[in-house]
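Quick question, first post here. What does this chain look like in 3D?
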Amino acid sequence: MKLFYRIYQFFVVAPFFILTTFLTAFFTALGCSIGLSRWFSFMPSRLWGIGLIRMLFLPVRVEGREHLQKGQSYVFVANHQGAFDIYFLSGFLGRDFKWMMKKSLRKIPFVGFACEKAGFIFVDKSNRHAIAETMNIARKRLQGGTSLMVFPEGARTFDGRMVAFKRGAFQLADELQLPVVPITIDGCFDVLPRTRGFGFVDWHPLRLVIHPPIAPKGQGGDNVKTTLEESRRAIMSALPERYRDELPSDER
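> Answer (accepted):
Ran it through. Tokens below.
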């Protein structure tokens, strides 16, 4: 059965993925360029993510959507299990959000241009002025129910367990006084771990857990630290036992 699944991926899913990736980038860039960014910055990528996961026959379960209020902007923070996280979140979170991305990803041909047109936020840490400008851009984008999606680990896991969270997303939420929503991704590591690159995927159920928002409890360093720690605990609580790590993140 595994052999047939891989043959199917090579001859059916791979061409579908290449074509839909191109079309998603094309329609995103086109729609946003003609002033229809509210729809085209979000819906093409959502259909792209849903289409790919359905083509691979991966079961999906989403929990906790009732925690989100219509019209409220959030800073979403999720564990980063692998490359499949992008498709999973894009397709099944069901909210209009902007990705916070490394500045270097802007250089990806065509796709980087589409991401820029969609209003995704490219992080420039080269100097204080660039960091301040990133904050200003985020402040303008996160309005009217538009949210931000960040992987606070900064990179995909090697073993399925979380590593230390970086403070950037939580500092931004603190600066803008926005609620932080922890999200647990479960299954993407089993589908396509980082060590396999972008090769064949394995069949495995996918689960997305949206935890209750964490409202600001003030402003400043203490609020940032508390929100970071609460978010990490919430995300870990919904992971399978084999992927939990009860050690402090800075000891890993």
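DSSP finds nine helices and seven strands in the chain.
The chain has one domain: 59-251.
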